[in-house]
Design brief:
Strand content: 15-25%
Number of helices: 23
Bound molecules: thiamine diphosphate, magnesium ion
Number of strands: 19
Length: 581
């Protein structure tokens, strides 16, 4: 053969050989795409930089953050909004650890997410020989999530990803950790065998149908009630069984109380909503049906002063059997997925289902109307500097006029008061600090909410709360997301008025730089910054931001003396019998 022909033949053979091989990089990407996971939130670096590049090249949307915790929070809330696991991608050791807070928070809040982390070489890590970013990540992740897996062979990537998906979304959703050591990415295998090894997860979150006897028991208890109450939790919002839940509530005629992230499942302005009569309905109800709400600290564990002296019977709908009797006796446990349970209850309620006693319904309504009337004038003040009520009154109007906007909310006073004041009208539009009351979810949640839904986002942030994720305003500008951040700037944590009693130049631990201008941060990255000193100015600025869709940050100047210690949960601060010195 002539020399040129030999060379040509050799080149063709190489090309053919390459065409027949695939590698870890591509198998992971293919496995994600096969399962409809088309967005990755992460921070690149060794050993996942090329993976992030290749994922983007393959059509996956790769949203690159400034810190892994916020990428993790974004993935978690993407999971809550879509019922598909959100993907968070981190580098080894420190990046992995930065993502863990979000992974643990997702698990606590039952948000499905998968943290995929690159890790260093097993051989070196396991002998503790000091690898670059050495850490036994799988062992560390395990207690913080629902399930944790490691893949060592390219041929196992398909199964590894499938297991992670199923673990994240089936039963009670939660965080899953998937450990991918650096060497896995470059491993090659036969392309056809690789394609065959991928798994499209069939029915990842199978319906769990409640037992008919349990349904009947629940209906019997409900029917016997003199003062019934329905509590809707975040799980009810997650379930996306909105029509069935609304039908059940309306057919029963029972007052309902939405937990924070269940607000809007039925509008807060619904005639049966008892949000403004919370303390009355908790105290005076005799039968309480919990739908996707847990009797944790947020509901005072179902006992004690806030639940009053009247004997209570609890009906609880939850997908997790272990949730039953977690704090108090559940007389009618209904274990199953919320959609199936609510539909089964509805089917069991015939046309003659009795309305709840009128004296109860009227008592709740009177209390609620009183409280709403008392609050109304405070929400209309136009004070400068603003107090929480004036500022939130303005934002309340914005959301009323734009019910499809997503509200992200964190802080102490900024959170507790916004939760009470801003009415929600549609399901899954309020995203906040959840079960732990964690600060730092703000920008991650806002970014994912904008990416996943395409709707405008209003993030209402305490100045302290914002600081935890503030650098991600660059991310918001970089992807040009329709996010309007409003910072309730009261110069500090809870209040900006604490004084250091020693007289040293250090300010008190709760106090920040006075009169800071957070709006300038947004301008640094090309977004719009506004300093608002009155509720009218604030409303105008938010409306402008939402009309334009431009990344905007509004520094809302709040009276530093307006807040109270720890917002509404000051009672949780430990006290000592010893007097303060
Ligand atoms: C990760 C984390 N760290 C610390 C806290 C404690 N914490 C609770 S609320 C809060 C900030 C409250 O101040 P701000 O956000 O300014 O709200 P304000 O009450 O001033 O409106 C802090 C630091 C927390 N909840 N989570
Ligand atoms: Mg503050």
């Amino acid at each position: 053969m002539a020399e040129a022909a030999v060379k040509a033949k050799a080149e063709t053979t190489t090309v053919e050989a390459e065409r027949e091989l695939t590698d870890g990089f591509h198998l992971i990407i293919d496995a994600l795409k096969l399962n409809g996971l088309n967005t990755i939130y992460g921070v690149p670096g060794i050993p996942i930089s090329d993976f992030a590049r290749m994922a983007q090249a393959a059509g996956i949307r790769v949203i690159s953050f400034r810190h892994e915790q916020h990428a993790g929070n974004a993935a978690a809330i993407a999971g809550f909004l879509t019922k598909k696991p959100g993907i968070c991608l981190t580098v080894s050791a420190p990046g992995f650890l930065n993502g863990l807070t979000a992974l643990a928070n997702a698990t606590t809040n039952c948000f499905p997410m998968i943290q995929i982390s690159g890790s260093s070489e097993r051989e070196v890590v396991d002998l503790q020989q000091g690898d670059y970013e050495e850490m036994d990540q799988l062992a560390i992740a395990k207690p913080l999530c629902k399930a944790a897996f490691r893949v060592l062979h390219a041929a196992d990537i398909g199964i590894g990803v499938a297991r992670a998906i199923r673990a994240a979304v089936s039963g009670r959703p939660g965080g899953v950790y998937l450990d991918l050591p650096a060497k896995l990415f470059g491993q090659v295998m036969d392309a056809e065998a690789g394609a065959k090894s991928l798994v499209k997860v069939i029915d990842p979150a199978p319906a769990q149908i409640p037992a008919p006897a349990a349904v009947k028991r629940a209906l019997d208890v409900l029917k016997s009630a003199k003062r019934p109450l329905i509590i809707l939790g975040k799980g009810a919002a997650y379930a996306q069984a909105d029509d069935a839940i609304r039908a059940l509530v309306e057919k029963s005629g029972i007052p309902f109380l939405p937990m924070s992230m269940a607000k809007g499942l039925l509008p807060d302005t619904h005639s049966q909503c008892a949000g403004a009569a919370r303390s009355t309905v908790l105290k005076d109800s005799d039968v309480v049906m919990l739908i996707g709400a847990r009797l944790n600290w947020l509901l005072s564990h179902g006992k004690g002063k806030s639940w009053g002296d009247a004997p209570k019977k609890f009906i609880q709908i939850d997908i997790e059997p272990k949730e039953m009797d977690s704090n108090v006796e559940i007389v009618a446990p209904l274990v199953g997925d919320i959609g199936s349970c609510v539909s089964a209850l509805l089917e069991g309620m015939d046309a003659k289902w009795p309305a709840p006693p009128a004296d109860w319904v009227n008592a709740v309504k009177t209390k609620k109307d009183d409280n709403i009337a008392k609050m109304a004038p405070r929400l209309m003040n136009n004070n400068s500097p603003m107090d929480y009520h004036g500022a939130l009154g303005a934002l309340r109007t914005v959301i009323k006029e734009r019910p499809d906007a997503i509200l992200v909310n964190e802080g102490a006073n900024t959170l507790d008061l916004a939760r009470g004041i801003i009415d929600m009208y549609q399901p899954r539009k309020r995203l906040d600090v959840g079960t732990w009351g964690v600060m730092g979810i703000g920008m991650g949640f806002a970014i994912a909410a904008a990416i996943e839904t395409g709707k405008p986002v209003l993030a209402v942030e305490g100045d302290s709360a914002f600081g935890f994720s503030g650098m991600e305003v660059e991310t918001i500008c970089r992807y040009y997301l329709p996010v309007c951040v409003v910072i309730f700037n009261n110069n500090g944590i809870y209040r900006g008025t604490d004084v250091n009693p020693t007289g040293s130049p250090d300010v008190a631990p709760m106090v920040f730089v006075k009169d800071a201008r957070y709006d300038k941060m947004m301008e640094a990255f090309g977004g719009v910054g506004v300093n608002a000193t009155t509720p009218d100015e604030l409303k105008r600025a938010v409306n402008k931001a939402m009309d334009s869709g431009k990344p905007t940050l509004i520094n809302a100047v709040i009276d530093p003396a307006a807040g109270s210690e720890s917002g509404r949960i000051g009672n949780l601060n430990p006290q000592s019998k010893l007097r303060k010195k």
